[in-house]
Amino acid sequence: MLIDKWRPEGVVAHGELLTPARPLPAWQGRDSNNGQPNDANVLRGRWNMVYLSSGETCNQVCETSLYNMRQMKIALGKDMERAQTVLLLLQAPDSELSSWLEQEHPAMLKFVLDDTTLPDFMAEAFGSAAVDQGIYLVDPLSNVFMRYDPDVNPRDILKDLQRLFKYSKLG
Predict the structure, then answer these.
(1) Residue 126 domain-assigned (yes or no)
(2) Count of H-run helices and E-run strands, the chain
(3) Domain that holds residue 86
(4) What burial class does residue 124 get, using C-beta atoms within 10 Å of its C-beta: 0-12 exposed, 13-18 middle, 19+ buried?
(5) For residue range 81-99, what is the model confidence (pLDDT) as tens digits?
(6) DSSP state of 124
(7) CATH, residue 118
């Protein structure tokens, strides 16, 4: 039987493919810039590079990941509008982090998740050890399907995104 052998031998993705892809559960949050309520629907229709942060501060891994996400989006060139960068915060950022985010990453979507949604949201979408542990890709249908370690070369993520955009008409 070939049921277990459906994958091609030459795997070219540079991240950890989450199989099966995990549907992003419904979540409630608020925009960290203006406090407006929002939910998971804001991620639909575009490819998303998502970083999940503990929130109050941003350590070196967090800063580097956010910088790399911004640079990868720019490097997409004509496909840049098909992607968006997203920071999900588990708690409201302190004033220093808020001003740093606004100065360094004004175009990034930034949301503080409501406390009541956190345990289920994290377990369903990202697994138990998700916080500050890398960049996740979410497709335009809101499925979390790929995870990259924080120390991965951003060019590898960019190659994966370019390959996705080449073969997918979504987003």
Answers:
(1) yes
(2) 4, 8
(3) 43-167
(4) middle
(5) 999 999 988 888 888 998 9
(6) I
(7) 3.40.30.10
